[in-house]
Amino acid sequence: MFAGGAVPNIKGVYCLLLVLSYVLIYAEGYVINDYFDLNIDQINKPDKVVVEKIISRRWVIFWHVILSVFGVALGFYIDWKTDVRFLGLLNMGIVGLLFVYSISLKKKLLVGNILVSVLTAWAILVITFCETSNLLHLDVSGSYTQKITRISFLYTAFAFVISLIREVVKDMEDVDGDRRYGCNTMPIAWGIQSTKVFVSVWLVVLIAMLLVVQFYVLILNWWWSAAYSLVLIIVPLIYIFKLLVSAKTSKDYHHLSTLIKMVMFAGILSMLFFRIYLR
């Protein structure tokens, strides 16, 4: 329950359905991307190709349709049963964007990277969107609602920046296949060294953002949260920065991508501290 006695728009089973809808939608994004990336993946990661080896292209399209329909339908169902509005239409738009990304946008300089980063960040911001009516009309004095809103935007910014970093690192990993099939990714258009500079700048920005946040966290005496962030997020990011400088092979960039995913996961888990401290 929000400050002032208001009931959240999303709670209980509807919260689970919201999570499920985005799991389905992003899963279909991976499915359709693998479908269109078959030729590229056969060069970049031949041992991990699923399409045609494990599942036929026809079944890939079938599962794409099923996952999309159920993901969008859950959005409309949540609209119908709660005070949330336009979630179904937004989910439909995301499905469309993921499809266009797979067939075209991913081959364009930075456009595909930014789109994936925005959609990754949206997976966090969607909770705030669903509670918009409560956030606009409750708790005008500040405290709880404003704290939750600020925290959601902090995590949204974190998700966007670290996703952008990982997407560009993946482009460096996949440069051989991308070049052969006409993709205009950053490493191809700018070169590896310039791309490293781009990623390095964003790593520095992200580390600086996190350090500033920890300053405020320490003011609140959230010592465990600060220690967690330092050990499992900030220090690993500094280590990633160091590895990036010396990275040369596809294997090096794959290792970096894996480390970045681990930091992303650690960052999301840190939400538990806010649940503890703000209850």
Automatic annotation (TrEMBL):
Name of protein: Prenyltransferase
GO cellular component: membrane
GO MF terms, alphabetically ordered: transferase activity, transferring alkyl or aryl (other than methyl) groups
Biological source species: Segetibacter aerophilus
Transmembrane residue ranges: 6-27, 59-78, 84-103, 110-129, 149-169, 197-219, 225-247, 259-278
Membrane topology recorded in Swiss-Prot or TrEMBL: Multi-pass membrane protein
Major site of localization recorded for this protein: membrane
Pfam families documented for this protein: UbiA
Source taxon at top rank: Bacteria
Alphabetical keyword list: Cell membrane, Membrane, Transferase, Transmembrane, Transmembrane helix
Plastid among keywords: no
CDD domains registered for this protein in UniProt: PT_UbiA_DGGGPS (cd13961)
Localization per Swiss-Prot or TrEMBL: Membrane
